[in-house]
């Protein structure tokens, strides 16, 4: 899938992608700078999109780590499967609310998300928050890219500690929410 096809998919499904463009390299680097990849064995990405965050994760994760990438767009999933063929990278064409079905009893060290939570129905959103906090290890991180500071308050019922960062080096400028259980 070429870049123009990826952009077409982005705009065709804006209600599920929640973005007008893909995350900049600067945003991806800033987001991933809050994650401790050393020793992380199970990493989950929510919303694989064009693979820009996925690539950053793979570049940083240990060789023996496993990355589960959840994406609901079949076109994005096909593209991700072509880009990332490693045995330790699992592209899952399913909703993040079903993450527990794919964990095989594991707990999660890191969750990195670009899901458009403000566009996701409340019941689904609540289930994703609940399962994320339930399966995240005590010293693990849930890190979210978003475009509204107010989203921070949705995490309060599920995570003990919440910090935020901001970057202008993206269009539009973005917040990064860093949560711990």
TrEMBL record:
Q: Which residues form the Methyltransferase domain?
A: 43-140
- Write down the Pfam families for this protein, in alphabetical order: Methyltransf_25 (PF13649)
An annotated Gene Ontology molecular function = methyltransferase activity
Please name the InterPro entries in this protein's record: Methyltransf_25, SAM-dependent_MTases_sf
Q: Which UniProt keywords apply?
A: Methyltransferase, Transferase
Please provide the Gene Ontology terms (biological process) for this protein.
Answer: methylation
Name of protein: Class I SAM-dependent methyltransferase
């Amino acid at each position: 899938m070429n870049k123009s096809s990826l952009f077409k998919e982005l705009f065709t499904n804006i209600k599920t992608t929640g973005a007008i463009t893909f995350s900049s390299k600067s945003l991806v680097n800033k987001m991933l700078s809050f994650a401790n990849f050393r020793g992380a064995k199970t990493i989950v990405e929510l919303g694989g999109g064009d693979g820009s965050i996925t690539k950053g994760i793979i570049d940083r994760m240990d060789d023996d780590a496993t990355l589960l990438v959840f994406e609901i767009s079949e076109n994005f999933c096909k593209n991700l499967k072509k880009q990332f063929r490693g045995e330790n990278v699992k592209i899952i064409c399913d909703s993040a609310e079903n993450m527990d079905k794919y964990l095989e009893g594991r707990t999660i060290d890191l969750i990195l998300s670009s899901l458009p939570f403000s566009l996701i129905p409340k019941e689904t959103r609540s289930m994703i928050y609940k399962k994320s906090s339930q399966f995240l290890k005590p010293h693990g991180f849930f890190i979210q890219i978003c475009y509204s500071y107010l989203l921070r308050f949705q995490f309060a019922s599920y995570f003990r500690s919440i910090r935020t960062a901001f970057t202008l080096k993206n269009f539009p400028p973005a917040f990064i929410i860093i949560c711990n259980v």
